[in-house]
Automatic annotation (TrEMBL):
Biased composition (Pro residues): 12-23
Top-rank taxon: Bacteria
Biased composition (Low complexity): 1-11
PANTHER family from the UniProt entry: BAND 7 DOMAIN-CONTAINING PROTEIN (PTHR43446:SF1), MEMBRANE PROTEIN-RELATED (PTHR43446)
InterPro entries, A to Z: Band_7 (IPR001107), Band_7/SPFH_dom_sf (IPR036013)
This protein's name: SPFH domain-containing protein
Gene3D superfamilies: Band 7 domain
Organism: Streptomyces incanus
Length: 403
């Protein structure tokens, strides 16, 4: 390859008029993405080129540029694939979409358990007694109270003239006030029990939860709903399930749970006990339960998966699930007979394989001892015969022992 520069003298050559001049490429034209016209010299650029044996010409100014560098541009990363035979860009495979997860149940975020305002039971008793005393005093004032009762209560035996004539507006107002106080006092008395709670509501609005025990006074105008907040366990009926192979099973589970948030459990779902049962049934259809006779490790895995799924579904409605344990697993009636025969066949095959392994080990040990001690000198044929006879003998002996 020869590099021609202006500082190095060269021998002029006479160009052949029949041979066209080699094409040259303008750098500005290349930068613009358009090829220059063939045979036309580029203004401002010399015709110096590098030539090699393959008559490939590369302009020198493309290798050593004296002009200013173009403005740098920020390039975005792209993925270039190999072109196909048709010249089209290959279609890159799209990433597989993630499997859609089931939506998590949501409840009103403002519906959270909070303590209700209640008073001690003595306050209600005192208010009720005051109302009763007011009614008695009003009856004496109106002259309605009999003389014997008035004397027994320490009141004067005679009634006023106004009482004999009848009840006036003042007496009726006194009767109404005293009766209202008595009804509110005695009507609001309630007994709180351990492990029980009341959810209070007024005109459809949640007003709080009462978890206190003993004699209490609760506003009698509030609607009360009793909720059991003790640790509870529920043993289900046989439910449908499947093992890892898709064989139908019938599973009885034991669920240990309790109500953590009484407001959400009572007002966030229609029936929280029924909701727990349906969550367990749905989890059994998503988890592979171990078939009868499988190791304990598989049972622990299924129990953990069931507990996690049911707890995730029941947690948003204020129910805390501690464990979901399969207590009885059996094959469905339609496949029970076939699976029983299959299990017996598997046990028999396992027993036969164990017996055959034991016989082969015994034969090998016997032949090896006879050979090492020099008791016999056997060739290949005699060794095969001895092995065959010993195998038959050991198998017959095991058959008689088993019988």
């Amino acid at each position: 390859m020869t590099l021609t520069t202006p500082d190095t003298p060269t021998t002029p050559t006479t160009p052949d008029p029949s041979t066209p001049d080699p094409p040259t490429l303008d750098s500005r034209t290349l930068e613009a993405g358009r090829p220059a016209e063939v045979g036309r010299p580029v203004a401002g650029r010399s015709g110096r080129v590098i030539r090699n044996e393959a008559t490939t010409e590369i302009p020198v100014h493309l290798l050593f540029r004296d002009g200013p560098d173009p403005v740098p541009a920020r390039l975005r990363p792209v993925v270039v694939g190999r072109r196909q035979g048709t010249g089209e860009q290959p279609r890159l495979p799209r990433p597989a979409a993630e499997p859609s997860r089931p939506p998590v149940p949501r409840v009103d975020p403002g519906l959270v358990e909070r303590p209700a305002r209640v008073l001690p039971g003595g306050t209600g008793v005192l208010a009720g007694m005051c109302g009763a005393a007011g009614c008695v005093a009003t009856s004496w004032w109106a002259g309605v109270l009999p003389s014997a009762v008035a004397v027994g209560l320490g009141l004067p035996a005679h009634a006023g003239a106004a009482g004999a004539a009848g009840l006036g507006p003042a007496q009726w107002a006194a009767y109404t006030a005293a009766g209202a106080v008595g009804l509110l006092g005695f009507g609001g008395l309630a007994r709180g029990r351990t492990g029980r709670a009341w959810v209070l509501g007024l005109f459809g609005r949640y007003r709080g939860t009462v978890r206190r025990t003993g004699l209490l006074w609760v506003n009698p105008l509030l609607l009360r709903r009793r909720v059991d907040v003790r640790l509870r366990h529920w043993r289900s009926e046989p439910m449908q399930a499947a093992d890892r192979g898709g064989v139908a099973l019938r599973v009885v589970v034991l669920v240990v749970w309790r109500v953590r948030d009484t407001a959400r459990a009572t007002l966030g779902v229609e029936e929280h006990e029924r909701y727990v049962r349906e969550c367990v049934e749905a989890a059994l259809l998503r988890v592979s339960v171990e078939a009868p006779g499988e190791p304990d490790g598989a049972a622990g895995t299924a129990q953990a998966a069931l507990t996690r799924l049911v707890a995730a579904d029941a947690g948003p409605v204020g129910i805390e699930v501690f464990a979901v344990r399969p207590v009885r697993v059996e094959y469905a009636p339609e496949v029970a007979a076939a699976m029983h025969r299959r299990r017996i066949a598997a046990l028999d095959a396992r027993h036969r394989a164990s017996a055959l392994t034991s016989v082969v080990d015994s034969v090998e040990d016997t032949v090896t001892r006879l050979t090492l001690r020099g008791l016999v000198d056997l060739d290949d044929y005699e060794r095969k015969v001895l092995v065959k006879d010993l195998t038959v003998a050991f198998c017959a002996g095991r058959g008689e022992t088993g019988a």
